[in-house]
Here is the input.
Amino acid sequence: MTQDYIQPNAGQPEGRTARLHMIRAYLVLLILFFATTLYAWSQVSHHLLIKRGVHGLAALDVTMQAHLQAGVPLSEFAGFERISESMLRVAPKIVSIVIRTADDRPIFWKNRTGIIETPPIDADALLTMKNGRTLGLEVEDDLMRMAMPLHGPYGKEGSLEVELRRDLQDLFEPLYFGIFAGLLILIGVVYWFFLKVIATDQEVCRWYRKPVSVLAQALLILALAAAFLGMLTEKRASDTAEAIATSFGARIDQAMTMGIDPGDLAGLDLIVEEMRQSDEMVSHVALIEGSEITTAAGVSDGTAALQLVDRPLTATFELRPRQIYHRQFQVSVGMGMLPVLRLVAEQAWLLLFPAIALLLLIWIQRREGGEVCRG
Here is the structure.
């Protein structure tokens, strides 16, 4: 009589082999998906760290360009000390800020050691900002250096450089990836326990012949990896928005300390617009007084300040005036949801590697199904 599956007692060696192969397939998928997620996250995190450097440059560039276009020589720029100290205070990732002449001679610098240790940047890549400006980028181990040319009425006057620290925490978030690895291992233990203790030899061989199990594993791990990558990206995008808001807010706060009302700051609207135009991921930048929006870019007419603050991926920096009865101001910076999702989607090609491995494992199991589980 023809049998569809092996007999309960006669099929133990075959069932044991099938279990071994299925657990092997899970381990391969686990390692591939974990490595893919880790690499994709490092690329997303690297991109968002560049954004911090871009806004560090833009914050100083707007002020300097106004002086240069007015005919003030680069060597007579008087606001560097005050602005650079503020940037280093509120942005711990920034290591140094340097202004060089057209012949690469440093004339202004501020860093956490007080001395110039780095030669002019040798750009590994060129980045084009949303407003058309070009940046040079150089990455060396744990440091990232960015340079922006400075132009006056008669051509290039010099360059502005920012150096950022790039540590393991920035690229990989060890705590979060430890949790991710723990979840994958937990799923693996449950899967192993089910195959080893609960499932019969007949069931194991049936799943082995029709590789539904390995496909289900892949879909489960893929969903978990996608959710985890999305959560990490949302966190890092919010951190980036907070860094931008803090940097911009600190500059206004310093002006308020000197007795200047934010509403009286010359060119504030230009600075706000430049901050938004320098980065396609920034959806809005706004200065809020009480419950009213004073100056904003990327905000439609009729938008209430409370709606702006409550948007997702939005950070708020509260200005704390020294005077007791001074009006209350806030800086709000938001990241666009679509650009953030697009940044994650750009790494989707990495899924080709586990997908190819999945197809290969399914092909192997279908080919070996008759040999491993006879019956």
